[in-house]
Amino acid sequence: MPVKDLSDLPVNWTSYYDPSPVKELLLKYVDFTQLKNSPVRLLVNAVNVETADLETFDSYVDDLTPDHIVASGSLPPGFPWTTINDKSYWDGGMVSNSPLDQVVERCGGTNKRVFIIDLYPSKKPLPKTLRGVMARRDEIVYSEKVRKDMRTREIVRDYRGLIAEILISVDPMAAGQIKQRPRYIQLIGDMAPMTITRIIREGEDGEPQSKEYDFSRKSIEELKRAGYRAAREALKS
Fold first, then answer.
1. Are residues 219 and 209 in contact, defined by beta-carbon separation less than 8 angstroms?
2. What residues have CB less than 8 Å from 16, skipping those under 6 apart?
3. CB within 8 Å of 51: residues ≥ 6 apart
4. Are residues 76 and 60 in contact, defined by beta-carbon separation less than 8 angstroms?
């Protein structure tokens, strides 16, 4: 069949899938006008394609739409970038797959219980095909971002502990004045710990490499069952 328009050639594509059905599904089941009044706060991240800046959209601040949700999952090349207010966005996981910094910045870091859902298995046998190599590469990249974010939080916790130990040796009046400084309150707070629980989806033996882009009902049901099992095991420990 002859090509009438050269722009239709695959070499000129920027993505493979059309996310319009997802937007329609979101409009059907989510009342976006009520998100600002919801007791549950929704934060979604997306990265600006042209500037590489990570942006956080907040249901308590922004007027969220299906576009914001789709933008946060617009992972290339499968999905196209999503345009919001003349800006084009891809999946924020490209920059930060577990945005702990954004959660702490918006909600505070003290006395919080955080659950991280890691969809990419950290351990897996050697791949046997080129497609398997590419899939495993992505799994390692995203899994490492999660580990890096957690290590950063551990470093912050250790420095906060060090400051607390130093203040014990300081004159009580001077220590009290230091603790009233805005900078101290902002960075140290009340020192209540943040508890982080990581729930990891470990790949099953012999699962196909198409798992990450298989949106069939069978695959979705299998992932739901696996996620439920993983969550129960993580909470049990």
1. no
2. 77, 78, 79
3. none
4. no
Angle at 24 between CA 20 and CA 25, to 5 degrees: 115
d(CA 217, CA 223): 10
Per-residue pLDDT of the chain (237 residues; tens, 9 = 90+): 454 555 566 677 888 889 999 999 999 999 999 999 999 999 999 999 999 999 999 999 999 999 999 999 998 888 999 999 999 999 998 888 777 777 777 777 667 788 888 877 777 888 888 888 888 888 887 777 777 777 877 887 888 888 888 989 889 888 888 888 887 876 776 556 778 888 887 766 666 655 666 778 888 888 888 889 888 888 887
pTM exceeding the 0.90 threshold for the entire prediction: no
Q: Residue 101 in contact with residue 149, Cβ under 8 Å?
A: yes
Give CA–CA dist 237/234, Å, rounded: 5
Amino acid residing at 119:
L
What are the angstrom distances between the C-alpha of 172 and each of 32, 169, 184, 193?
51, 8, 16, 23
Question: How are strands ordered across the β-sheet holding 87-91?
Answer: 54-58, 43-48, 87-91, 82-84
Cis peptide before 121 (omega within 30 of 0): no
